[in-house]
Amino acid sequence: MQQLGKKLKNVPMDTSHVRSSTSSSLNRVQRLSEENMCCFHNNPEVNHSQHTGRAINPLVYVLSKEGNSLMPCSQAKAKKLLKKGACRVIKRFPFTVQLNFECGNQVQKVTLGIDSGYENIGFSAVTETKELISGIVKLDGKTSERLTERRMYRRIRRNKLWYRKPRFLNRARKEGWLSPSIQRRYDTHLNIINRLKKILPISETIIEVANFDIQKIMNPDISGTDYQQGSLYEYQNMRSYLMAREQGKCQLCGKDFKGQSSHIHHCKQRSESGSNRPENLVILHEQCHEKLHKKGLKLSKPKSYKSNTFMNIINKKFYQDIPDVKITYGNITFVDRNNLGLEKSHVNDAFVIAKGTMQKRIKEIDIKQVHRNNRVLQLNRKGFKPSIKRKKSKVNPYDLFWVNGKQYSCKGMFNKGQYITYGSTKNKEYFKFSDVDRIYHQGSFVWNM
Questions:
Q1: Which of 62, 112, 198, 200 is most solvent-facing, going by the fewest CB within 10 Å?
Q2: Three-state DSSP class for 73?
Q3: Is the entire prediction scored with pTM above 0.85?
Q4: 31-36 long-range CB contacts below 8 Å, 24 or more apart?
Q5: Where are the alpha helices (DSSP H) in 85-208?
Q6: Would you call 45 helix, strand, or coil by DSSP?
Q7: CA 384 vs CA 24, 44, 153, 375, 377: distances in Å
Q8: Whole-angstrom Cα distance, residue 53 to residue 360?
């Protein structure tokens, strides 16, 4: 029974009508039995055509007998097909089945939206009525550290050899070469797009790119020929530029040098992938520089423009590697997202990029990018004679394994692969590898469904 009260003055007048029966007997009365009274819950507070929230259960992705992607189905329908033996499981994350019989291969139009980024990639695939998949890929961003580690191993190995002829001028870069860190991030964009196309009949791909004027960001007043004159223009060297920039004063103590020796310091250390650009350098007294390192003091790190540079580099490469790709920009996504009343996130941006409006949303997936082949210095039981791990482990971290029918998540292996660990970081437990029944390899993408 509806609650009656005084007439409300804030009843919305522009909302959609609530669906009701078309029976004339149920819709005879067109006014309330009590005049000047109304029901508190008689009118909807929001438009029913707006977003209804995220679905609880993800979908099951379906491939035809020939391996072509079809429209996904519900978990209940997939369970019935598996019981009948009409399909088989071919992938665990995301859960994908392949049909054992011929079908019509009829599909709907599916649009994939990609929110490209330096640290995260948002993706969403939608039809006219619902969202089929959405999530975010978190990039590890450790390529530079791994290259430094590889350089260390190489130098150790070569120092143990006899003299060999220098070979540093025989290297050539291919056309379109990218630095390893940028290449890996860009390849991850292509990898996630190709993986989604294998499980969904995607007919259109839209990617958001950006083009940043970094010099304009650093100096809003720059114009004309100033773009051709860098920070060191008309300065003898870096030290003279830093002296002029800081007006001859130490950036730690604030006192001038007065003939004292000066040192150049990196705000973000080279070991932390800091650059030699003027924005990352400060000039200090020799004593201040020693004090800075001994006491572990830190100067404020400069703002990094790596993400902006990355977007400037890859914004045109998508045309070369993805056929029939369409490009959109952040200002368009910003307006469309605000019109829908969605919060700022990579998943919502990807949904808007895919031309999503009022489709039913699905629970998002978190994907973590991991590295599969780490170089490890292994010690013997007494802690001596370190050696480089040269063979790939049979099981890697995040892989799933089963012992006596129970599932576990691998944390690592030890004793030359004879034992496999699981559990929390603080309380690790282990099994003998010979007790493992079966293994599921996650690969470079760890899916958190």
A1: 198
A2: strand
A3: no
A4: 34/4, 36/7
A5: 143-159, 180-199
A6: coil
A7: 90, 73, 18, 18, 11
A8: 7
Contacts of residue 445, defined as CB under 8 A and 6 or more positions apart, other chains included, come to 93, 137, 192, 195, 367, 368, 369, 370
Torsion angle (degrees, nearest 10) of CA 387, 388, 392, 395: 60
Q: Could you tell me if residue 36 is left (phi over 0), alpha (psi between -120 and 50 degrees) or otherwise beta?
A: left
Comparing CA positions, the residue from 343, 370, 342 lying closest to residue 358 is 342
Would you list the DSSP string of 352-417? HHTT-SSPBB---EEEEE--S----EE--TTS-S-EE--SPPSS-TT-EEEETTEEEEEEEEETTT
The whole-angstrom separation of Cα 366 and Cα 93 is 11
Interatomic CA distance for residues 217 and 199, integer angstroms = 41
- Given 3-state DSSP classes, what are the helix, strand and coil percentages for the chain, each rounded to the nearest 5? 25, 25, 50
What dihedral angle (degrees, nearest 10) is formed by the CA atoms of 362, 368, 369, 375? Answer: -160
The tokens of 255 are what?
Answer: 């006192």
Tokens for 296, please give them: 């572990």
Four-point Cα dihedral 276, 282, 288, 289, nearest 10: 0
**pLDDT tens per residue, the chain (449 residues)?**
444 444 444 444 444 444 444 444 444 434 433 444 434 333 334 343 345 454 557 899 999 999 999 999 999 999 999 999 999 999 999 999 999 999 888 899 999 999 999 999 999 999 999 999 999 999 998 888 888 888 887 887 777 777 777 777 777 888 888 999 999 999 999 999 999 999 999 999 999 998 877 677 767 777 777 767 666 666 667 888 888 778 888 888 888 887 788 888 888 777 776 777 787 888 888 888 888 888 777 777 666 778 888 888 888 899 989 988 999 999 999 999 999 999 999 999 999 999 999 899 999 999 999 987 765 555 555 555 556 566 777 888 899 999 999 999 999 888 878 899 998 877 889 999 999 999 999 989 999 87
Using CB atoms within 10 A of its CB, is residue 263 exposed (0-12), middle (13-18) or buried (19+)?
A: middle
CA distances from 274 to 144, 147, 277, 300 (A): 11, 15, 9, 13
